[in-house]
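Morning, I've got a small favour to ask if you have a moment. I've dropped the whole record in just underneath, so have a look.
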Amino acid sequence: MTDLATLQRHQQAATRAAFFVPGFAIACWAPLVPFAKQRAGLDDAMLGVVLLCLGLGSLLAMPIAGMLAARHGCRPVMLVTVVIMAITLPLLALAPTPLTIGVVLLVFGAAIGAMDCVMNLQAVVVERESGRPMMSGFHAFYSIGALTGAVLVTLLLSAGASEQVATWVVAFGAALVTALSLRHWRTERAAQGGATFALPRGVVVLIGLVCFVTFLTEGSMLDWSAVFLHEVRAIDLEQAGWGFVAFNVAMMVTRLLGDRLVSRLGASRAVLLGGLLASAGFALATLVPSFSIALLGYALVGIGCANIVPVMFTLAGRQTRMPESVAIPAVTTLGYAGVLLGPASIGFIAQHWSLPFAFLLAAFALACVAVIGALIARSN
């Protein structure tokens, strides 16, 4: 019994590390977006096209990652994705043209998306074996990784370090965390003969829709918060990354408390209140012309969105319409379609109307899925 309890603790810690790594890596990109925009001479619409590659890579890789994890186990798939992240991160600071930035983002996004899919497969199993809610806590470590990466890169850039130095530091950090946790990543495979990929159906489609809009919001924070603060609020490039930091601090703290909050409020109420709060925060940050208010608004978005996706993944693991080995990749893929379409759509809307108008549309979408997500949670 003691050995089993010890093994479970090690696997829980290793799962938290698995969530930390992609958050840490992808947050490095947020402060670098304005630099890449300047370096390649991109307007808002072209930046939207280039950013499309990040989500496209994730979207294409997720079903493949789910199939590979079912056949070979989570550990080897996650290890390969970390290696790809570490290789492509420094290239993001060097790519000089829209084409090269897009290609690197495509590969980088594929690694992030594959890791995201497989780590959630592992998290569902580890949570079930623990016999208690753990999903919000696992996702908190994605936010901890994102916060750490965003703060680290912003501080390095503010201190005068080059983009190349910042990305190499993050790549080394991701590799180190992986080396320390790799031993306890899961290795079991799905039952042979079962489906390894299927189109989402039933309640899985609705769960994926809620994740789609939530990921759209997170993608907007990643790709557009620094641009908004620099171009609309006239904040210096080196300081514009603090908007994403505010978002991630709030999300991290809320997710650390999330399992207790969801238990106390109930999944339905937690999703409803969270979505409405995130919508209000997005509107506040967009409409009030103040840097400090924008940071507060981004923090409210982080608080509100924090527990929506963890609740949805738990529901995807519980539903009986599809096996979890295909439901989780399906939900993850639908969710990351928000990363694919969201930031790119914001770029096109910003080009034809304005960036604030695009942000307000995202706020409205958040309010809508707050209601949908609450209804799903209540019926499951």
Notes: Residues 98-130 form the longest helix (33 residues).
